[in-house]
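Two proteins follow. First one:
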Amino acid sequence: MKERPHSGTPFADAGTVARPADDDRFMREALDEGRRAAEHGDVPIGAAIVRAGEVVARAGNRREVDADPTAHAELIAIREAARALGRWRLEDCALYVTVEPCAMCAGAAVLARIALVVFGAPDEKAGAVRSAAELLDATWMNHRPRWRFYPLLRDEVERLLGEFFATQRKARSDAD
């Protein structure tokens, strides 16, 4: 992951968006959703949308169970938050996600006007916040959410992913 401070322009007053002191609690909510996703065979990535200190939506990946390539945790959580709040502009919300969002999910955060994206582990292959691309800092985007990396649960996130993929590989080799 490249190290460079973000340059996102905040959409909401910093006092209304989740603070770093809240990151552990909300990242654990996302991590719980990731664990639930693994239970039905999906990659264990989870997300939570937070507004004014409360989780308004949460989701885990559902690509396998729904046979939907767009059923990423972030997109599902964004849709649920918009439905719960009765608006598509989520400018006073934060997106917590266990793994750095891909291009599709980072783009959705921009389009939903998410104020802040917090992720727990980088994705060197497909991460579109800081690793493979830098969509949230792209000057050509019409909105640029602030973002931060929350490294304190990185080991737990990466262990969950590693265990999931090891189980998947073993199941494939046993089937052969």
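Second one, unrelated to the first:
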Amino acid sequence: MPEQTAIPLDASPIQLDEQGFIAAIDRAPNESQPCDHISLRDLFPPAFYRQLLDSVPTTTYFHELRHRDAIQPDGRSTRLRLYLYPEQLWFLPTALRARWSPLARLLMSQALEDAFKRKFQRALERRFGCSIDRLKFYPIPIIVRDLPGYRIGIHADVPKKAITVQFYLPRDESQKHLGTVFHEGPSGDAALRTRKMQFLPASGYAFPVQMEESWHSAETTTPADGERLSIMLTYYVQNTPALWFIRRFERLCSFLGMPPNPKI
């Protein structure tokens, strides 16, 4: 991607193509090897995408996500996150809030959840043992900044997650080798049978969380790789009153400056 001039923050926000975004998910073919997933392309038009990258908040608005694999010997985490909840966006400058709010609303919308549920209907109904129409999830969107040294070992995600989505936000193709790796299994020969996503502009992936199936990892990044920028969208299970309450209590804690550090 050729170098382009940054869009001034006082410029009018470029409209988000919500229908085009959902259409990119609908047209993504389902893949079953080495596990169920989809690969996403062309999620944003070029002008909107460039505006989004020019509007990424500074690290002062982020906090550490402290899971085991992200912690460095000095105790600091190599993964920083910023929740895209509406109430969290009010802490941003007005111009940045105007640019991120439409996307944040889309990420938490029922229309987008329904698109992913349609895509993974068979796997989700198999896991939960009921019709897709009876499944209700809770979306949690975050901007993620992965610093040099970041990695995640092979894991399948915890049972409280239903769908995991990551939208890649590099400026060009120079970081394409930094994509998530899907594995057939957690160890041995199965761990070596893989498919690696390419970390490309306006791209990403999604998969239904399945115990003992949705194995994936991220290789260690280096100083030469630079920062790995993306949006994580996780749909959490909320099929009991207790889980419904927990999801909202954690959101309140995040607003009060006490964000949870869930297991991966």
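SUMMARY FIELD: Confidence is low (pLDDT under 50) at residues 1-5. The two ends are 33 Å apart (CA to CA).
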